[in-house]
Queue: 2 jobs
Job 1
Amino acid sequence: MPQHFHLNDYTIYTGDLRDTFPDWLRERGYVQVILVTDKNTHRHCLPVFLEKAGLPGTIPVIEIPAGEQHKNLDTCGLIWQGMLDIRLDRKALVVNLGGGVIGDMGGFCAATWKRGVDYVQAPTTLLAMTDAAIGGKLAIDFQGIKNTIGVFRNPAAVFVDPVFLQTLEKRELRSGLAEVLKHALIGDPELWRLCTAGFQVHGGSIHGLGSPWYLEASIAVKTRIVQEDPYEKGLRALLNYGHTVGHALESYFLESAEPLTHGEAVAIGMICETWLDAPEKAIGIAEMIFRVFSHRRIPESAFPELWNLMLQDKKNTAGQIRMAVPGEASFTMSILEPTPEKIKDSFLFYNSLTPNP
Ligand SMILES: NC(=O)c1ccc[n+]([C@@H]2O[C@H](COP(=O)([O-])OP(=O)(O)OC[C@H]3O[C@@H](n4cnc5c(N)ncnc54)[C@H](O)[C@@H]3O)[C@@H](O)[C@H]2O)c1
Ligand SMILES: [Zn+2]
């Protein structure tokens, strides 16, 4: 049964957007509607979206190149130029149809256009549905540094229709699942239990992913945290669980022949960070994670560089690494300040794990 989540001044609608979007749009009475897509969502998602939304094919669409490497000022220039070309009014609506890159950048461009026009998030990746589209954080990368320039601004609404997951590459889907598992560990033991029962790996493809029964429970956790801490003053740090180690691994392997996806890196990060807090617990988490993700050895020669990458994390101060991991009860956290030696041991622990065949 589709659910609606109210988050401060906006609603996150889940389920078939046919049932919600057209009425919502009519009630709002925007003078103009435009869409922002990337090459892939233009091809795979736009026809479905227009049909479900009841919008004509003549609606203006700004298409940008796909990929994180385009989440920068140059591409914002393209989007703002598109807005200028169609004389986008302040009373218009911008619909971001895509993954987290489109959501973050389309949102940022809308938030800054004439000091802000309304925007809607229509996420099309699992990561965006469960994480990026919720919470009003908008940013672009600058000089290669992630999410350096940005603002907080809430969307007018979010429409999460799982139909779009059908065309998403399996590796992207799996990657988004790391955030679902993260949310389960942060705030929903029942979701964790269901994931443990629900995800089975057969010859590299995941059974249990097809129908995204885990979507709403996952959104509920993110929504609750953002509700309690919209401006990241406290509890929202918990959403970064797995990401201190995860981001370092993601950057490190970016240079390798086989880069890790964000979710693959975060999955390893959750194992290592949990081990730093409670080694017993890390074993159980690892067991679940290896149902979804394969094991990727971390070379010992990489340890010093990984430490340096972690130190660059903006949440750290004066040579000390700080990370939030889930506490005993749901929606509580412990703050860890591990030494380089401890971190190294957590990598060795991870390397020592042998996933189920
Ligand atoms: N604002 C936040 O709170 C927040 C939170 C987490 C992540 N993020 C940001 O999200 C971004 C990552 O998002 P992402 O993983 O969705 O990446 P993405 O937007 O690059 O999408 C991944 C790939 O899938 C393609 N794609 C998207 N939807 C598709 C579909 N339905 N069918 C086929 N192909 C499709 C895209 O074109 C792209 O090539 C990062 O930039 C990250 O910083 C933001
Ligand atoms: Zn993440």
Job 2
Amino acid sequence: MQADNPSYFKTRIAPTPSGFLHLGNVLSFAITAELARRGDAKIILRIDDLDRERVNPEYLRDIFDTLNFLGFNWDEGPRDAADFEQNYSQLKRLEMYNKFLDKLCQKDLVYACTCSRKQLNEGVDCKCFDKNWQLSTPGAAWRIVTYKDTVFIKNYQGEVTEMQLPGSMQNFVVRKKDGFPAYQLTSLADDLFYGIDLIVRGNDLWDSTIAQHVLAKDLGLDEFGKITFYHHPLLTGEAGEKLSKSAGSTSIKHLREQGKSPADIFNLIAEMIKPELIAENWQQLAGAIV
Ligand SMILES: [Zn+2]
């Protein structure tokens, strides 16, 4: 443990209700809770629900069931699914997101893309920027014009990392085909809205971290650059593959149905990290890692 822990105002646990929570999510929550404890920060539960095709009420309830079962507490945010729908859904903040989209339009930084997912998956080169489609084209996504900008990311470990947007993220989508703002924009907007100054997420989200810094720069939101980031290693399965929500056997719901206790679940995660590691609660698990 560090002798001198920096203090923070607020961090967040931010799951998406598009699958049952799995062991990898729990590791992330444990690290978040531990860094909040060390930094004397409040925790907000922030749930992303604008992926309207994939969001499912059963998955939403699963978030609360799992957090309560495993003994995670939070200071701010919805207490249950009904409270979420009524008071915290991202649908309540569409006006804020749309203002950011308007600002990008005013700065002439977005263009409409009519490529289908299938075309993009097949590697078809998107030529939509040159085609200059109307932004109002039905079913078009909006992409942001990205340049080879450098962004600076403040790391928990103390240093500032200079990063560039990877090729796969160039001209990322800021408004989806369904008309809703895309993840990078809503995540950035919500973190600023809630006054977050510490973000804990997996190493797989580095690209998003960079994209969000690019977006913040374009929007003139300097305060986003003051947020501290902690990217943690991911849990991997036996074959070394990344755990995903589709891997049903690692879902907490499934493990509970098998009769596993919270201690069993924390031990399972601990074992995946180091065979000799024993952890019966999130405090022990995170304490052994960060
Ligand atoms: Zn396109």
